[in-house]
User: What shape does this take?
Amino acid sequence: MANKISSLAVVCALSSLILSGCGQEKINNERLAKGCAAAVETILAKDIYDRRFDRVVNKKFSMSDGFKLVTLDVVTKTKEYEEDAHETFNCKFEEGSSFGGFAWYANLVQLTVDEDVYGTRGGEISGSLNDQMALSDAVEKAMK
Assistant: This one.
């Protein structure tokens, strides 16, 4: 009888960890989406771009080259005339966690805006040091 109870307890505990891991992935995906949106907003605020971030209308999550890929469908507005446009932005994140997802981290690896790449591409750092610091700060704040 004691073996059946302890076996049931182990099964319940494992099931609980698996289910909480699924819920944690959804929470982490939302954090990644917020981080990506903050990165897009930060870069579009630069003077070289003629538009600004307005809002996210859709988000998707997948894998790309071993990184978590966050795809955001975004409404942007021109800085001068406030005209709406729909655009898609992709952020690649390095993501990791401990068993059960108790300790989770994510770092922005790459963001592409138009033809400009911010982060790393092929082992090379793209964008200025100021861009990298601004992106890291914005993403970190957004994902808290």
Observations:
- The CA atoms of residues 110 and 119 lie 4 Å apart.
